[in-house]
Write a structure and sequence with these properties.
The chain is α/β, with parallel strands linked by helices and 408 residues long. It contains 15 helices and 14 strands.
């Protein structure tokens, strides 16, 4: 697996030598994928960013043939299937009016992931799509099919229009992080501890995005460190509409913020933005049900230099152990690697904020745990629970928001 950029991803799937590389080259207008008459030239997913009018930049992913053979071929097919976890739209490429078991399997796998697809009949210069094949494929896939020639891409605009039509708006229209919690002119206080995990000379991505979201919503953003909070609130004549803190500072910030002021964390905001928030709210209280010997999986979504007292590897395991008083076992998985144990062996899964991933990839990351009945939670929600302020931290969202939920 590769970490997914936050641009929408479109995956090209099809058999060997079906013209996937030529198709992606025709779409991007660049020779970014190797083209060869020899079947199986593409061995790993190849990614290229292109601009689609009305959407913006998207990542096109050229994958290995779904009909590859042999032991190495099986590994290539496995990587192609794994790439489905990162795509927001799948294109099933066929030619010569041939739609069979390989293509059906792709359609089934995309549907299992809730990923829309469309079918493109390539090499139309050699054999156009006939009416009977169009009717059969449309009836079976419940989607559209377009004729196309990578050698003579006369209807390229039609293909791009179909991509825009079928790509979910949620993949490129980002919901506001806190727009339903504030109104123009509100004061939002952002507590950002500068500690060992803060990058030198910078602030981390969720904090940057929260500041920008405050500005987009015409709010007043007050950015400060935790030790400045009490003094700022005492001097400030405007009551904050919302205080957002780093999860690790929950306890100190909660003590300083008056009970009537809404309080949450960056991690919880991103859990709502990118994770399955309802599942997180149901899963978090399972912390109290953990028993001696239970195994907990910590999911970091990006690889980073591990510092002393790292939040995922040291602090959260320590806080969970102290809160429960149980002898727990912990596995930490960085990036998008598979866990060392089958997911059903775990009693709890704790997902990070996922700031480097899209909502689609975070949800795919958690899918097997949810399907296996394993409770899931989030860094910030788990920390708040361990610190005894969970109810306060999720109170701003307890009522839900239909517009927000529909968009994500």
């Amino acid at each position: 697996h590769m970490l997914k950029s936050q641009k929408p991803h479109i995956g090209i799937f099809g058999r060997r030598n079906i013209g996937k590389s030529s198709f992606i080259n025709a779409l991007t207008g660049q020779e970014i994928a190797i083209v060869s008459p020899q079947a199986g030239t593409t061995t790993d997913p190849v990614r290229k960013t292109m601009e689609i009018f009305g959407i913006g930049p998207v990542v096109m992913t050229d994958t290995a043939g779904i009909d590859d053979v042999g032991e190495l071929g099986k590994k290539r097919v496995a990587r192609t299937l794994a790439a489905m976890d990162t795509v927001d739209l799948g294109i099933i490429l066929i030619s010569h009016n041939d739609y069979g078991d390989h293509e059906r399997q792709v359609a089934i796998e995309l549907a299992r992931r809730g990923t829309p697809c469309l079918v493109v009949h390539n090499k139309a210069d050699l054999q156009p799509l006939d009416a009977s094949a169009r009717e059969l494929i449309t009836a079976e896939t419940k989607t559209e099919i377009a004729d196309f020639s990578s050698q003579r891409p006369d209807n390229l605009e039609e293909i791009l229009s179909l991509l825009k039509k079928h790509l979910p708006a949620s993949a490129y229209q980002k919901p506001s992080i806190l727009g339903d919690l504030v109104k123009p002119g509100d004061l939002v206080v952002l507590c950002m501890p500068i500690d060992a995990e803060a990058p030198e000379g910078r602030i981390i991505l969720p904090q940057v995005q929260a500041v920008r979201d405050c500005l987009d919503n015409n709010c007043i953003a007050a950015v400060l460190q935790v030790q400045e909070l009490a003094g700022f609130l005492a001097r400030c004549s405007i009551a904050p509409r919302l205080v957002v803190t780093d999860s690790q500072a929950f306890r100190a910030v909660s003590a300083a913020v008056p009970p009537g002021v809404a309080l949450t964390s960056f991690s919880i905001l991103f859990a709502r933005l990118k994770g399955d928030f309802e599942r997180f709210m149901k899963g978090t209280p399972h912390i109290s049900s953990l028993r001696d010997g239970d195994r907990v999986l910590i999911l970091e979504s990006c690889t980073h230099h591990v510092v002393k007292d790292d939040i995922g590897r040291e602090k959260i395991p320590r806080w969970l152990s102290e809160h429960t008083g149980k002898g727990l076992k912990f596995d930490v998985v960085a990036g998008t690697d598979a866990p060392p144990q089958p997911i059903t062996e775990y009693s709890l899964v704790v997902q990070c904020g996922g700031c480097m991933l899209t909502a689609k990839q975070v949800r795919m990351r958690l899918r097997t745990a949810i399907e296996g009945g394993v409770p899931v939670t989030n860094y910030g929600m788990a920390i708040a629970y361990c610190m005894g302020i969970y109810e306060r931290a999720i109170a701003p969202f307890a009522g839900g928001n239909s517009d927000f939920t529909r968009l994500i």
